[in-house]
Amino acid sequence: MVTRKLAVLAATAVAALALAACGSSGSTASSSTSAAASSTAAESSAAGSSEVESSTAASSGAANAGSDELPAADPAVLKDAVIGFAQVGSESGWRSANTDNIKTTAEKYGVDLQFTSAEQDQAKQISSIKTFITQGVDLIAFSPVVETGWDAVLQEADAAGIPVVLTDRSVDSDPSLYRTFIGSDFILEGEKAATWAQGEFADATEVNMVVLEGTTGSAPANDRATGWANILGSDAKFKTLASQTGDFTRDGGKEVMEGFLATYPDIDLVYAHNDDMGLGAIEAIEAAGKVPGKDIKIVTVDAVKAGMEALSAGKINFIVECSPLLGEQLFQAATGVLSDQEIPARVVTIEGTFNQEQATAALPTRLY
Ligand code: AHR
Asked: What are phi and psi of 21, to 5 degrees?
């Protein structure tokens, strides 16, 4: 194990924001930083429609500025470092790509990665983290299943002097209990989806919508709902007929959509919090004798290959990107933490959006 040095990072004192470049082309993330707390011009330029671009810029009001960066991942620091990673589970294509990317990157740097998967069960994830603490690993990283309920285990890690890095999803605990949070701006993702819907249905007088929510209590489910409401919450034209969790799974999306279709004959739009649930919805819509993408429009989040293929085929109408390629940044952050360097308290992944044409163009080089 490497020598663990804990420089306590006062999150409030480190306002720098790292922006990881991993835009619509699906290229592996690299990072830059900014004091801005939300989206950027770069993000907007990656967007697939001008409606999305202008709204994105307007809703963030942020400019790219600032300079603090994550250090380069250093094999000299990372080799044989014992890093415990407690993954959410294997619920989606996004999750599989994220797991692969973290494992491959750990291998590249010679990290002794202790990997566990919680199958979307917070109790299991807490138990894994406790095991990492007992083992005395050098660093713990995890993507929290849900946002709440982490104080005790984070305090335990803190008391044991083990630094924690959050990837993908955040928690509502005091930021002093973890060293950084690397991941997407889920609120912005919801805003992008809603901005597309606003443009797509500009001429409609009424839009009957159903929502396939992500895992209840998870940051992406909470924030993607908030982002949508930020843009369309006060637009009476958009009527939410029903909103229910499909747990971020294809089967869940299919089952919930079957129920929606049985109850509501006149659905115009599905907002699915991820591609997998959107893909499940497509199956349900086709089984009901309707044409996904035409009779019922679909907007999703992620842009994994299967989602992009459905978009290219016209079965999904728009996808907001959420990059799972967080491995490089995780081990950059780990390098900083384990070599006692200051790192930004927040690292935001830069992401784009895709319409049908853009998905078709991006697919041949899509990495996940
Ligand atoms: O936290 C990221 C979300 O989790 C992805 O959008 C979803 O597909 C996954 O399960």
From this structure: -80, 110
The whole-angstrom distance between residue 27's C-alpha and the CA centroid of its chain comes to 16
Comparing C-alpha atoms, which of 215, 143, 153, 214 is closest to residue 184?
A: 143
State in Å: Cα 143 to ligand 1 middle: 10
CA distance 235 to 134: 52
Quick one: which of 130, 106, 110, 126 has its CA closest to 118? 126
Per-residue pLDDT reduced to its tens digit, 201-223 = 999 999 999 999 999 999 999 99
Cα 214 from chain centroid (whole Å): 11
- % of the chain beyond a pLDDT of 70: 82
Q: Residue 80 — pLDDT band, cuts 50, 70, 90?
A: very high
Kindly give the number of the ligand 1 atom that is closest to the alpha carbon of 93: 8
Based on the number of CB atoms within 10 Å of its own CB, is 199 exposed (0-12), middle (13-18) or buried (19 or more)? Answer: middle
* Cβ neighbours of residue 187 closer than 8 Å, sequence gap 6 or more: 38, 223, 224, 226, 227, 230
Per-residue pLDDT, 69: 84
Question: What is the rounded CA–CA span in Å between residue 148 and residue 150?
Answer: 6
Q: Residues in the chain, how many?
A: 368
Instruction: Give residue 248 CA to ligand 1 midpoint distance, Å.
Output: 7
Q: What atom in ligand 1 is closest to the CA of residue 301?
A: 6
Diameter of the chain measured on Cα atoms: 64
Tell me which residues have their CB closer than 6 angstroms to ligand 1.
Answer: 91-92, 94-95, 168-169, 220, 248, 274, 276, 301-302, 322
Report how far ligand 1's centroid is from the alpha carbon of 308 (Å).
15
Distance (Å) from CA 93 to ligand 1 centroid:
8
What does the pLDDT look like over 257-310, one tens digit per residue?
999 999 999 999 999 999 999 999 999 999 999 999 999 999 999 999 999 999
Mutation test of ligand 1: which of 274, 299, 304 has the most ligand atoms closer than 8 Å to its C-beta? 274
